[in-house]
Batch of 2 targets.
Target 1
Amino acid sequence: MLIVGVSLAVLGFGIASVKAPSAAASGTEYYVSANGSDSNAGTSSAPWKTLQHAADTAGPGSTVYVRGGVYNEKLKITKSGSADQGPITFTSYDSEQAVIDGTGLTVSGTEGIIDITDANYVAIRGFEVRNYTTTKSNVMPVGIYVHGSGSYISLSNNKIHDIKNTSTPTGTDLLGRDAHGIAVYGTKAPESIHDVTIDGNELYNLVLGSSESLVLNGNVDTFSVTNNKIHDNDNIGIDIIGYEGKSPNAAYDQARNGFVSGNQVYNITSNNNPSYGKKLPNNSNAADGIYVDGGKDSIIERNYSYNNDIGVEIASEHAGKSTSNITIRSNMIYNNRLTGIAMGGYDTKRGSTVGCLIVNNTLYKNDTLGDGSGQLYVQYDTQNNVIKNNIFVASSSNVLIYNEYTKNSGNVVDYNLYFAPGGSSNATWTWKNKEYTGFSAYQKGTSNDAHSLFADPLFLNAASNDFHLKPASPAMDSGLTDTSIIGSLDIDGQARVKGAGVNMGAYE
């Protein structure tokens, strides 16, 4: 798989930083400066003034260098690069910071301040994108918006903040109060948006309503979301979505074949988001760090998700529809309020989670609310999922797994390590709506975890969030060695299979 602007060692196993597309070096170079003029030649000594003039002029293989300064304008990109000549690249020049500022600009429909429509081979690199806001309902400001169909789009090393919808619609649910930091909507079929790279960006201070910080939705096929920092937003961090009708053909309406790795997602909460309840804080605790809602065939590995409402969730909000074939692997998930990992529909009117893998993750003292959702929250209609090689350490609630629904079939739970501050005799598991107190009672009553352990994992320094294992840890070399599911690398990028065996948890 070719992804413009990023070097992948092997998809899923090791990611290098985004580099400038090599083809662009031999193409035409253009320059934009806040002090330029669009009647100039667009050279370094006679730069243009506006980004839009550059977008209307640049062709395949071109690089548009934007000098430091503030550009109070929208950038609409509809032209494409090409496979043989290279992408059209827009980038901040050298070490200078180009800022695209939306202060005072109106929002029409769903609109990006950087808006890429039906384009191929486009790279956006190194911008600060900010202050694109609205107080109107039923319009949606987006920092960078990719939509229609297209391919080989690279969004790298951008800083996106203060994208906000602060409207106050009438009614109780505040529908129409939405915004995104980065959004990729595949809105055509069968033509998809494919081969998308979103790497090294920072997204923060976003007011999102019922929408997401970074989202891939609809007919989006083959993408990587890597090495991004997403924090301090009032709804979901990263979301892979299906079944929302973004594609005109339902057969193509699932984001798929994605790779989500190396991201840090933290301080994501809906508790001060009036879309979840006007009385603030509303204590909804509904925002995921990383969420798959109806997506399929994707890998979520080697991420850090902490201090969010929910660490990672794989679910389907649509009745009769499933999230399927998702791998959650070698992630560090800790100190999230409601739970560490959630799966299945959140009530009986939702869809299912089918054929997913949850392997080699470390979940530490999630359920900080203490309301009993535990480290793993198994919800409605879960089928044929595998949960192995994980470390689960309970919060003060002493709840490790909570599964209140009986519609649960074919799930395999084994080769895990459990620990709780109250010890084995006070730890609880709920499975198919039956609660078990004590590890042996849980094993006997459910037939789960026949090869699992209850023991202190002996982290190096959990108080300082260092969850590497001490040499004497019982998790050392105690995991199931199954290279078909565990992957090649741990969260540090070290070889997963070493010596005598495989560790449980995120760290080898």
Target 2
Amino acid sequence: MKPIVLGIFAALFFAVTFVINALMEASGGHWIWSASLRYIFMIPFLLLIVYLRGNLSLLFREMANHKKQWLLWSFVGFGLFYAPLCFAAAYSPGWLIAGTWQVTIIAGTLITPLFLIKTVTRDQVIIQRQQLPLKGLMFSLIILAGIALIQLDHLTNVSISTLLFGLAPVLIAAFAYPLGNRKMMELCEGRLDAYQRVLGMTLASLPLWLVLSVYALSTVGAPSVTQTYQTLFVAISSGVIATVLFFMATDMVRDNMPKLAAVEATQSLEVIFALIGEILFLSIVFPSPLALAGLVLVMAGMAIHSFANKNSTQIKNEKSAMHINA
């Protein structure tokens, strides 16, 4: 249950991204600065945390031993995740991006067969491909059905350009984030904690953010003071707090794909938190009865996800206890 709770709090802090990105776009801030400044600002905070925990040298050794993998999967997990989200903010409102982002629930389940699981027995080490968690996929579809209801009123009013430039990048991000996160978990094999992994991926993705920053500086100029402060807030709230909470939650269940799918499904609550934030700070229209029904369906799907995985854990524990007693 603890990973689910951590996932929910991560969703709350992640939702800040959608609301503030919408605010920055409304005030004329460029999407490149929204993306690159977030990760640049994250580095000193994470460096301080990891240094004070005495884990900095271990992180650097791990990164030195697997340079190409760190660069590749950090580019996928952070670069192909956040840059497309910020780009989409230039073409779509925050609620639409947050809603489309929930495709990551299905994406996290669909990429499961790309990973191997290692089982150690007395005689041998068995490596086999992960199976698609059909039960988790079914629960995820319930949540996505709720998301679809929330967005239904709005999708009929968007243009083709909004669909193309506002939704396609979010779909890329929805698959890139869980893929990069899981590949890094697979690479680290529990040797690094969540703080180390977030710092390592931020440092490894830094070349991308620096290149984008130089391009933005030469084309659109420096970011405004307001955008700089807003991006700093996003970096702390979403980049540090939310990412660390989410990575902690996924680390706890990294060897159990159904539970991992349940933790990733907690991110569906981002659309609810983002909707509340936009109502409070951007004065958007209150959701229709259809959208409210979607919210109820999302929460119901989350409750079923959590309950099913809790029951599954209890059954496994009971079977283990019976085996030991026998």
